[in-house]
Amino acid sequence: MAASLPQKPGMAGMPPQQQQQPHLPPGAASAAGQQPMPPQGALREISPVFLCRIGQETVQDIVTRTMEIFQITRATQLPNGVTQSQAMYQDRFGKLQEHLRQLALLFRKLRLLYERCVEMTSDLQEGPAELLPYVGEELASVRVEPCSPAVIQERKEVLEKVRQKNQEMKVLMDQMRNLLWDVNAMLTLRK
């Protein structure tokens, strides 16, 4: 896959402007204070850490775009018989479509970054059997040293307090449930 990506690994199919500044919206690529990209010769040797940072910025962009979509939809008034201007609805619809298109591009970019990171770090990753240490193995018995009588007594006291609190909470939950049933029954009878 690395041979088919002449520009930046994991960024094939992305517009050049987004490749240079992945965390900025289109048109804001010349913002001051942004870190420059590595020189063209170093593009083949981008570290997984750098790709992860770009991925983190991409996730932040995805969250921002999603929040903007929710803000647009929250501001949109549902049709309730009042005629609003068709231009306003078309404008909001156009904004939503643009945000959704950008969101799809960002998810595609994130997927490419993920695949490239997995490819670059495949020798570092552990197999799933190593992640689950007790699958297929018997638990080795751990030798536990006896505790002092004071610690055992304190543990018993704490367990008893926890049992009492749990019982009190259960009683309160039952009372609240009964109260809610009564309130709902009264509200149903009023209708």
Key words describing this protein structure:
single chain, 191 residues, mainly alpha, disordered N terminus
Number of strands: 0
The ordered string of helix (H) and strand (E) elements is HHHHH
Residue stretches low in confidence (pLDDT < 50, at least 5 long) are 1-36
Largest sheet: none
Overview of the molecule:
The protein has 191 residues and is an all-alpha fold. The chain has helices spanning 16-20, 48-75, 86-120, 128-131, 149-190.
Q: Nutshell version of this structure?
A:
By secondary structure, the chain is mostly helical. The protein is built from five helices and no strands.
Task: Chart the SSEs and their pairings.
Layout: H1 16-20, H2 48-75, H3 86-120, H4 128-131, H5 149-190
Helix pairs in contact: 2-3
